[in-house]
């Protein structure tokens, strides 16, 4: 097991270097002179330009600049936003809980509905329910989520008036941040109105972001379950006279879940990326929304730092999933 | 060895089906796949004859018809069957012309990542030493960064626009093609026919492209179909974020971005382009699933 952990950890290093190279290139390959972008419309004298070029180290060879950048990154210094002049790391830290809250709720939604749907579809194979689940799942999988989010707004916010259009909580509520997850904070503050407001703001983005994982989980659970249900030990369990519920729920499900858990793990990472679109549609104050704003305002430090941080977080999540997977499934551990 | 030179004298009552015929019998057994194929065919026709079918020009504005609803709604007219957008452009014509962009985007994305993926994957498969390891590490790095985020970064580097959006989406799908090609190549390299060809003096490029590649095509075709759909969605997402095709291009994602502010006043400007994306992508995915079932020998009954 230790060896498995070690090889996984060493794989992190080249990946991290790759991400830093990408974000480094991101700024250095952008067409145009970064100093002129910094100076804006006021312009800049030639002498000042040369001075700044030297100050920022932009006159040094590229590999040296990369090493300097790497040094800053390792010390946790990702520069200042060009617009707000706040450290990029601080802005990220402030907004990240909102993204995590949204992503985790979306995943919860997907598992809560996808898993039972997949199981029932497998047990009642070729029934109307099975075909229905598979049809809905394929549609969900093909759904452009930015459009799906807008449709949800049209239906639930506009036509039915059930939910607010955007944001995270109504302005009149002021919840003390304890965990950073508004839903939990609102619950802790004992303010029922605040909790209800936070929940009603969360629900549409959660559905929008959770739809694709839901579709994938339902499909995956169904096919994995079908495979397991054909195994000999299931026939044995049935022959023993166990109730069908017990056979499916205990004997089959435990083994069928292994590939499903992998898929869930893999999707946690991409949820953060999917959150970019969802947050933009619902003006959800998370890191995805912040990143898109950064692109639109040409705020390069935000873009560079944001991509690096999101990439690193996803890398760590994937590592965690990998290790966890090795823990629950010994076959993976000993394969190498 | 002498036996090989003698003619086969086995009598078979019926000739075995040709691979193509066998493939078609599997494929046509799957109603979803056939439906997908038909829809894609219709979309191709729409794209080819867009100029003939469209009632209006996709970019012409009509001063007398801002945000007109579709004809079945109150206030709608058959002049603009699916209504008009905020500056009076005919929705139907724009959606029909949008098929050209989506098919183009999907095809070019697949063409770029398929071609590069085959070349890089063959290289990684044939030179499994340092070169192969380096290539696969690089692909792992690309895979770690979620597709859309990576595409956004690349577009931010190259600058917004349809061409750059297609390039960036192609890069996102490249690792899948490289992995599939490499895995298939490694499987094939152990087989006798490759050794025979090598003994006969075939050069490495000949081995790569003429001997081995044709036997690796099945999984690549499946991946190409699925990437076609995914590429259309991703490019539309970039258009939606303002990083892909620029207005007034009638690209579906860009149309959605254009009309986002009217989402509460005019449902059709938002609903219809998205529906077009969904139908196209769904058809592509259905076809991809059918192809996988028909081409993947492991699943054959």
What does this protein look like?
The complex is a heterodimer of chains A (336) and B (301). Helix content of chain A is 76%, strand content 0%. Chain A is mainly α. In chain A, helix 1 packs antiparallel against helix 13, helix 7 crosses helix 9 and helix 9 packs across helix 11. The model of chain A has no long low-confidence stretch (mean pLDDT 82). The mean pLDDT of chain B is 84. In chain B, helix 2 packs across helix 12, helix 6 packs across helix 7 and helix 11 packs antiparallel against helix 12. The radius of gyration of chain B is 24 Å and the shape is elongated. Chain B has 301 residues and is mostly helical. Chains A and B meet through helix 1, helix 6, helix 7, helix 11 and helix 12 of A and helix 5, helix 6, helix 10 and helix 12 of B.
Helix content of chain A: over 70%
Biggest β-sheet strands, sense, barrel of chain A: none
Low-confidence stretches of chain A: none
Mean pLDDT of chain A: 82
Strand content of chain B: under 5%
- What is the helix/strand order of chain A? HHHHHHHHHHHHHH
Which oligomeric form is depicted? Answer: heterodimer
Q: What is the element string of chain B, with H for helices and E for strands?
A: HHHHHHHHHHHH
| Rg calculated over all Cα atoms of chain B | 24 Å
The CA-CA distance between the termini of chain B, in Å, is: 34 Å
Number of helices of chain B: 12
- The averaged pLDDT of chain B comes out at 84
Features of the shown structure:
heterodimer; A: mainly alpha; 14 helices; 76% helix; B: 301 residues; mainly alpha
């Amino acid at each position: 097991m230790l060896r498995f952990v070690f090889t996984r950890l060493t794989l992190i290093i080249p990946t991290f270097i790759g991400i830093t190279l990408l974000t480094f290139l991101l700024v250095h390959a952008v067409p145009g002179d970064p100093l002129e972008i910094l100076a804006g419309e006021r312009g800049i004298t030639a002498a000042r330009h040369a001075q700044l070029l030297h100050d920022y180290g932009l006159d040094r060879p590229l590999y040296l600049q990369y090493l300097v950048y790497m040094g800053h990154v390792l010390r946790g210094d990702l520069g200042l936003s060009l617009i707000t002049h706040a450290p990029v790391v601080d802005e990220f830290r402030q907004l990240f809980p909102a993204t995590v809250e949204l992503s985790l709720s979306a995943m919860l939604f997907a598992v809560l509905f996808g898993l039972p749907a997949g199981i029932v579809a497998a047990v009642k194979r070729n029934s109307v329910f099975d075909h229905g689940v598979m049809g809905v799942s394929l549609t969900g999988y093909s759904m452009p989520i930015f459009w799906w989010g807008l449709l949800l707004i049209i239906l639930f916010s506009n036509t039915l008036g059930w939910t607010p259009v955007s944001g995270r909580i109504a302005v009149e509520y002021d919840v003390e941040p304890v965990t950073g997850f508004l839903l939990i904070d609102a619950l802790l503050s004992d303010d029922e109105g605040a909790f209800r407001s936070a929940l009603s703001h969360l629900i549409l983005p959660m559905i929008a972001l959770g739809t694709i994982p839901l579709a994938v989980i339902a499909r995956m659970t169904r096919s994995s379950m079908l495979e397991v249900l054909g195994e000999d030990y299931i026939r044995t369990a049935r022959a023993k006279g166990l109730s069908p519920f017990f056979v499916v729920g205990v004997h089959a499900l435990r083994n069928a879940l292994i590939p499903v858990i992998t898929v869930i793990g893999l999707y946690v990472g991409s949820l953060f990326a999917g959150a970019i679109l969802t947050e933009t549609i619902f003006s959800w104050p998370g890191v995805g929304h912040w990143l898109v704003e950064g692109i639109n305002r040409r705020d390069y430090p935000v873009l560079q730092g944001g991509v690096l941080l999101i990439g690193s977080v996803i890398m760590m999540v994937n590592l965690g999933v990998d290790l966890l997977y090795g823990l629950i499934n010994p076959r993976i551990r000993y394969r190498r | 060895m002498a036996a090989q030179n003698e003619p086969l004298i086995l009598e078979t009552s019926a000739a075995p089906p040709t691979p193509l015929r066998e493939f078609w019998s599997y494929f046509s057994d799957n109603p979803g796949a056939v439906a997908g194929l038909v829809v894609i065919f219709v979309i191709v026709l729409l794209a080819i004859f867009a100029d003939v079918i469209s009632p209006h020009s996709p970019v012409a504005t009509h001063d007398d018809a801002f945000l007109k609803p579709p004809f079945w709604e109150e206030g709608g007219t058959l002049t603009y069957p699916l209504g008009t957008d905020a500056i009076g452009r005919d929705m139907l014509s724009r959606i029909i012309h949008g098929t050209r962009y989506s098919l183009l985007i999907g095809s070019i994305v697949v063409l770029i990542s398929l071609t590069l993926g085959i070349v890089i994957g063959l290289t990684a498969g044939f030179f499994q030493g340092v070169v192969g390891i380096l290539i696969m590490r690089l692909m792992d790095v690309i895979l770690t960064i979620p597709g859309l985020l990576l595409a956004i970064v690349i577009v931010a580097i190259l600058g917004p626009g349809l061409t750059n959006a297609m390039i960036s989406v192609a890069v996102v799908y490249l690792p899948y093609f490289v992995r599939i090609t490499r895995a298939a190549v490694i499987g094939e390299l152990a087989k006798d026919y490759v050794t025979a060809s090598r003994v006969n003096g075939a050069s490495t490029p000949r081995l790569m492209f003429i001997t081995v590649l044709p036997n690796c095509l099945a999984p690549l075709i499946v991946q190409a179909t699925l990437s076609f759909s995914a590429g259309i969605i991703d490019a539309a997402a970039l258009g939606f974020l303002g990083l892909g095709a620029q207005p007034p291009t009638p690209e579906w994602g860009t149309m959605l971005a254009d009309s986002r502010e009217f989402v509460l006043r005019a449902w059709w400007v938002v609903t219809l382009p998205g529906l077009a994306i969904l139908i196209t992508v769904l058809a592509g995915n259905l076809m991809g699933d059918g192809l996988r079932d028909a081409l993947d020998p492991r699943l054959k009954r």
